[in-house]
Amino acid sequence: MRTSTLLVAARRVAPYLLCAIGLLVLVAGAVAFIGSPGYGYDYAAYDAAARRIASGQPLYLPGTAEAYNAGRYAGLYLYAPPTAVLLVPLTLLSPEAATLAWFLGRIVVLVLACLALPVRREVRAAVLGVAGLSMPVLFDLNLGNLSIVVFALSVVAWRSRGRWPASVAAGALLLVRYPSVTVLLSWVLRRRLRDVGVAVAATLVISAATLPIVGLGTWAEYVTVLRSLGNITTGEHNVALGTIAASLGLPTAVSTLANLSGVVVGLGAVALSALRSDEDVGDVVALTAPLIVAPFFHPHYLVILLLPAALLAARGRWWGLALPLLAWLPDPFLPLVAVAGVVAPLFAGKQAEALAAAPPSSSVTARQPEAWASTVRKRAP
Predict the structure, then answer these.
(1) Residue 373 host element (H or E)
(2) What interhelical angle do 41-54 and 95-115 show, nearest 10?
(3) pTM for this entry
(4) Residue 364 is assigned to a structural domain of this protein
(5) CB of 151 closer than 8 Å to CB of 306
């Protein structure tokens, strides 16, 4: 009896202990990263773009596509205009201070996003701990990229399902990483057409709001830059299936087939989860699928694996917390980690199983108190 009690106590404490360890590593990493090699590398391009807007200069540098095609990536801004426009307020600071503000701000965003996950509080704590220990999160923080922001927007889209914040978040995701169209595909298959319409409208409104600042010509230039980019699958640090296959010396046909396989598996998982699984699984798969649907992704994109980790752990599959940690594996394994992250939620089990397994005192999800009460009533003698 005493052993059983100790095991129960250990299980209750373990998520919070993991959270504490992860936060300690995150804080230690933050201190070590500031001023280190690679610190703010990606943000430097965003900051320079925002300062060009603030000073009335063209957003996109002349020869951007040519520099990218030649492998000269430093300082290149390749996102749509809204990202740079939103960062203009940071140009009131010096570049060094703006980089630090962006760095610290994303730590806050990461913590808030983990705490906002629509799962039980002990799962949120465990996911936050795993985030602090995962390579993609630490890598993204150091570079100053947008992957943590993408994760936060994805949490909003998942948590706010069926309400306008979810659609606005989906629209913002489209402007940051266009393969996020998988979210709209999932919504179409689940006949959430109103949500799709609001998401498209949000994308257009956000885009239109930048016109008085950057003008229509900047958007035309953005399209020109994208069309002028060479084979993006060969870009530096791309760890997509096809690129890894090519780096291993496999024939071009195998590399092409690998990329197509990613598209098929990703879209297949989105369709299957939308048509056969519950909505939580459908949302998480759709938000994770861009990893393998697109012909490229960088290691820090794997921050999004915190979503399937949270879903799986919430349904008693605590092994799902290993997904973000598997990103510490060497690059050739990362495409397989991405595939696992997209497919694993299909094996999360049903919501009813998770509800029945959860103790009455726990918060099952932010949206399921009625479902818990119903389950309790059905199980009552």
Answers:
(1) helix 369-379
(2) 110
(3) 0.89
(4) no
(5) yes
